[in-house]
Amino acid sequence: MKSPFRRIATEEAFQIPEVAEQLQQIARGTSRSSDMALVRRIYASKETYYAGFFAPLMDLGAARIADMDANGVDVQVLSLTAPGVQMFDADTATELARVANDRLAETIARYPTRFAGLAAFAPQSPKRAVKEMERAVRELGMNGFIVNSHTNNEYLDDPKYWPILEAAEALDRCIYIHPRGPSDGLSGPMGDYNLAAAQWAYGVEVSTHAVRLLVSGVLDRFPKLRICIGHMGEAVHFWMWRIDFMNARAQTAGAPKLQLKPSEYFKRNFTITTSGQESHLALDFSVKSLGADNVMWAIDYPYQPSAPAVAFMDSAPLSDEDKAKVYYRNAERVFHIPPAR
Ligand code: 1WB
Ligand code: MN
């Protein structure tokens, strides 16, 4: 499957035993978080379909590389899978982010041409999160950061998290906002029909998070901050005309005054990926509305199978130049991945 394009997959999940063990404890507990259904299915049951994700998540070696080789995937940008460390108390979360980042760095050192990595951090303790972010980039050479949307029902536009945004901007590394189950306030109607996870609520959760960043004014405060969101931008850009129009009206009614339109921040500060959203029509809309520089390819391994994600991009109706950007050039730039030798 030799391709004229390097294939860098940008939202690829892994798990480590220490975090899995904590999630097993959570699964046995009584939390009412919307993440509980999925956490129970993957970490505490033998329910065949979801439990089947456990082994591929835990593999950071031969089996993962074999899947990549079989499908012509050159690089996976790895991230600790949702909900990361964000359901734990601050001390546990801070410690486990460190362990996960060390494990990730060891993995990349073992396969330096095949893996890159996004560092976890624990928003529960913003001060220690910043320290870990600095260590992850300066000492471990990480390519960016991963956060699984809300933490204790709070979002990154909250001033208590500004040090995290400031650190990401100063370190010149993006923050990838990955889904987790929706915050308590968004959860009510998501409880039925398996809506609480990837089918629907994940996109509502992350798009809400993204729009909060766009309209809160934090992107005037941190103009060089880069945010990545998956699943074809969680449809945020589909709403842009209406968000721009209604935000202008909202500003006359007391909403924060912004230097730019929400759509202008989205194009300046956000990069979207195609994880788990294999529609050529949605890709075409994304490239046309955001530009080919703002879209990156992803699989969402192991939650999505690799072969169809590769076939989707191989057959995408894009010019060769745009396809090269989406398949690898944008990822090389955004994640500081050296060009292939
Ligand atoms: C699924 C997808 C489950 C993702 C996940 O659990 C994550 C799913 C943490 O397809 O059920 C994901 O990363 O998109
Ligand atoms: Mn994912």
Structure explained in plain terms:
- This protein has helices spanning about 15-30, 35-45, 50, 55-60, 60-70, 90-110, 125-140, 160-170, 185, 200-215, 220, 240-250, 260-270, 280-290, 305-315, 320-335, and strands spanning about 10-15, 75-80, 115-120, 145, 175, 225-230, 270-275, 295.
- Strand 2, helix 6 (about 90-110) and strand 3 form a beta-alpha-beta unit.
- Helix 6 (about 90-110) runs parallel beside helix 7 (about 125-140) and helix 7 (about 125-140) packs parallel to helix 8.
- The relative contact order is 0.13.
- The longest helix is centred in the first third of the chain and has 21 residues, at about 90-110.
- It has 16 helices and 8 strands.
- By secondary structure, the chain is of the alpha/beta class.
- It is globular, with a radius of gyration of 19 Å.
- The chain has an 8-stranded parallel beta sheet with strand order 1-2-3-4-5-6-7-8.
- The model has no long low-confidence stretch (mean pLDDT about 95).
- Helices cover about 50% and strands about 10% of the residues.
- Bound molecules: 5-methoxybenzene-1,3-dicarboxylic acid and manganese (II) ion (MN).
- The site of 5-methoxybenzene-1,3-dicarboxylic acid has 9 residues, from loops.
